[in-house]
Amino acid sequence: MDEKALLLMVRVGCLREQALTAWTARPDLRLALAESATAAYLRLADHQVPLSPRRSAEEMYEACRAVLASTTGEKGVIGFLDSTLPLVARLAEEFGLPGCSPKTLKNLTDKTWARARLAGAGVPGPGFRPLDASLTDPADRREAVGGLRYPLIVKPADSSAGRGVVRAGDESELDAAWDTAARFTKTGALLAEEELIGDEISVETVTVGGRTAVLACTEKLSTRGDSFVELGQALPARLGDGLDERVRSVAVAALAAVGFDHGIAHTEMILTADGPRVVEVNPRPAGDCIMDLIRLTTGTDVYGIAADLALGRPVDPAALDAPEFTGGAAIRFLDATAPGVVRSVEGVAEAARLLDPAKERLVLLTRPGDTVEAVTTNLHRLGYVVAVGADTALAVERAERIAAMVRVVTSPAAPEEQPAHRLPSSECWT
């Protein structure tokens, strides 16, 4: 029997590199990583499973299955990307490993299914309608959203990272929103929801055996216009005691409504004038370094908890619920001066000198020569600053001040110029 347990990670995704740092530091784990062969952090794994750039789900399954089949002793499989969750559940079920059921995870990749289940259980949310992306007649489209109040949010029912999420302010904007959202769906399913007005937050939780602990409530800074892109996160969210308890209870009810009974989840909400309303339930740990912010402010190693859950080791939700915060932490993302070709990235050295290297960091996800686009999804962001403070307000102020020192300078491509496309974040990170 192997002395160390094997933890197989099926792709890392953007802004989750600290998971690898946490796991490779543990003396009781061997890390296997299935990731693009060009990913810079593939080298960190004890066992590397290089995938082709155009990998199919079946290729990933066969490669990961071979690793698990050849491993004796304690093992587990884990994934954080929405696109890999059904595959992870399939592997866990096949090898008798812990995890949320494949049926639940498959259902939760369908935003329409989740919205209907939440509504059926009385969990507060927006009015909504499922839509058929193939509808092209304007009259048919207007009939399909009949009864909903504008503004509407039109989104693919099967996408993530803010891709294809568009606002239709009134009936005249519906067709453009519909056509944009339709470009991002693989199944042909769209969802229209009445826009929820208020501050955005998310609730980070751990569920074991149907019992849920709330690790943190996170406040969010997002664009709200033609697209919805998260520009920053901070915690603990600045909520009053009464609202804090209400938010927690809604999150727990939402997880129960969709049948999520094992694992870490990230439930997004809007704090409307009528109270918290659920945007969606994500059956995986939050992105955007939120897990790192929790560790910085409470000492809780959420990635360590994720590993233990995947290996079937005991995790007590009662010991994790409502941790004590010792300060605040925030992340703010970098943007370019304008879409175009990156000519220079200025102010990095000056900004870096202000950072506490033990707790804070500045990460660039672009380089001179890259082509950058207008920020319409989370994947377009160009880097970030993580900062801490004595409380949330001070952490936010510090992150914004340091981020503002870094300028990604762009200009249009010259007629003869062949600019490079941006590398994926997995190849930028070193």
Fold topology:
Blueprint: E1 5-10, H1 17-24, E2 29-36, E3 47-51, H2 57-69, E4 75-78, H3 85-94, H4 102-108, H5 111-120, E5 128-132, H6 138-144, E6 152-156, E7 166-168, H7 174-182, E8 189-194, E9 199-208, E10 211-222, E11 230-235, H8 241-257, E12 262-272, E13 275-282, H9 290-298, H10 302-311, H11 317-320, E14 328-333, E15 340-346, H12 348-352, E16 361-364, E17 370-372, E18 383-389, H13 392-404, E19 407-411, E20 420-421, H14 425-428
Parallel strand pairs: 1-2, 1-4, 2-3, 17-20
Antiparallel strand pairs: 5-8, 6-7, 6-8, 9-10, 9-12, 10-11, 11-14, 12-13, 14-18, 15-17, 15-19, 16-18
Helix pairs in contact: 3-4
> How many angstroms does the end-to-end distance come to?
34 Å
Give the overall shape, derived from the CA principal axes. Answer: globular
Classify the beta-strand content into a percent band: 25-35%
CATH topology value of the largest domain: D-amino Acid Aminotransferase, Chain A, domain 1
Query: How many strands, which pairing sense, and closed or not: the largest β-sheet?
Result: 8 strands, antiparallel
- In the CATH hierarchy, what is the superfamily of the largest domain? ATP-grasp fold, B domain
Q: Give the number of domains.
A: 4
